[in-house]
Fold this sequence. Notes:
By secondary structure, the protein is of the alpha/beta class. It folds into three domains: about 10-270, TIM Barrel, CATH 3.20.20; about 290-375, no CATH class; about 385-500, Alpha-isopropylmalate synthase LeuA, regulatory domain (Double Stranded RNA Binding Domain), CATH 3.30.160. Helices cover about 40% and strands about 20% of the residues. It contains 16 helices and 16 strands. The strands form four sheets. Strands 1-2-3-4-5-6-7-8 form an eight-stranded parallel beta barrel, surrounded by eight helices. The chain has a three-stranded antiparallel beta sheet with strand order 11-12-13. It has a three-stranded antiparallel beta sheet with strand order 14-15-16, covered by helices on one side. Strand 5 (about 135-140), helix 6 and strand 6 (about 165-170) form a beta-alpha-beta unit. The longest helix has 20 residues, at about 480-500. The site of zinc ion has 5 residues, from loops.
Amino acid sequence: MGLIKMEEYIRIFDTTLRDGEQTPGVSLVPDEKLEIALQLDKLGVDVIEAGFPSASEGEFQAVKRIAETGLKAEVCALARATKSDVDAAMACEVNSIHTFIPTSDIQIKYVLNGTREEVLKETEKITQYIKAHGFLCEFSPMDATRTDLVFLKKVCLVAQDCRVDRINIPDTVGVASPCYMRKLISELKRVVKVPISVHCHNDFGMAVANSLGGVEGGATQVHVTVNGLGERAGNAALEEVVMALHVIHKKKTGINTKLLYETSKLVSRLTGIPLQPNKAIVGENAFAHESGIHTKGVVAKPETFEPLTPEMVGRKRKIVAGKHAGRQGLRAELEAVGIHVTQNQLDEIFRRVKALGDKGKPVTDTDLFAIARAVTGVPEKNVVKLLGFTVVTGSETTPMASVKLKINDKEYIATETGVGPVDSAIKAIQKIVDKLVGVKLKEYRLEAITGGSDALAEVVIKIEDDQGNIVSAGSASEDIVKASVEAMVNGINKLLIKRGTTN
Ligand code: KIV
Ligand code: ZN
């Protein structure tokens, strides 16, 4: 880092429940907000911005409940620079209040309808009011990165003179660059003596890089959201900022990185925003290797193609088959489920996987195992076979499903009720196989492949057994229940192969 002095510990200010909830289409109910807050506390964030109490009655109640829960983290509420907003935040009995006011000329004119002089006056009034009531105060000059630097310093000095505890510098419309952010923060540090924080938006895909630039400039706190949720293109992603701080910048945070993946999954599930597969740290492919060169390398020594281990963030490495696959990777993937092959068999499996990949088809684990079975001459041994199912559903009846399975030549039937026919059928399957293997449904995804009410539906599920083995499986049919039942049965058979209990 040359001459740049960087503080050791960087505070993580999480705004998933405030800026993250401003993601278009996301709205969390108080129970969901509380569940996320508890997870963030377990994860070890320093501050939880729980919401914007003056936004609605539900938001007020959610922030109040989070503040009452007795978390280790500081619980913060957002307030515009108005007495009514601040009063609402105080009534939630939070630990700190984050107040903001526009400072760029464009926002002063079109958002505030005011003048620079008024901004200085309001800053003084509101920060004094918050401090006089004994609350910690974080002050944000909104749109700081488009604010005239001389005026920005003036506003910050007014807030500092009113004894604010931290000043946060927002890159509200994401127009900064890492170098600009570094210079801006080091310039501000010449006059600002309270800790400086940064809050970067991702409009040009640089929120994480800009946050790190801010840290290089001397910021000791970073605003982040889980999965990078937030207004428009989002905020700096917590998991990316934290891992980059730890691994690249050799900084410390209070985050237990092993909980990053489960936190990401929880937030994705509750907000309904799926993760792109190639998302850093938490995306499906972040620790998956397909190409022959890479799989050979990671099988021999993971550091060859992994800058951090999957275990560091609570994940597992995945070797996947495909047209770029190498023999070593295929062998590793097969051996992980107990299929051992000779060199000649491996050569043939390798040839067939490439041929399938060359036809433009993704090669799933099911394809690979089927190829391996064909090549090794081991007959397909599905322990669990679907013999049939029926469902009853409608507005006047409780949805119900009966499923008939054959397990090792014995027939079983179970009937269950649920919230719908799919839920009922999955529960009936779980009931039958329970003696063989306890199965939890971790993920269920439904995609229509074609249009219309007769669309082909693809169901992809992820299930986990009581030993922590996880498999994905799928099926496609015009009938959603049929696709779901088949996917579940396929998944259970894959789990049994993985456990080595197919006999
Ligand atoms: O992006 C922004 O400027 C904000 C403020 C409320 C700090 O979220
Ligand atoms: Zn923001």
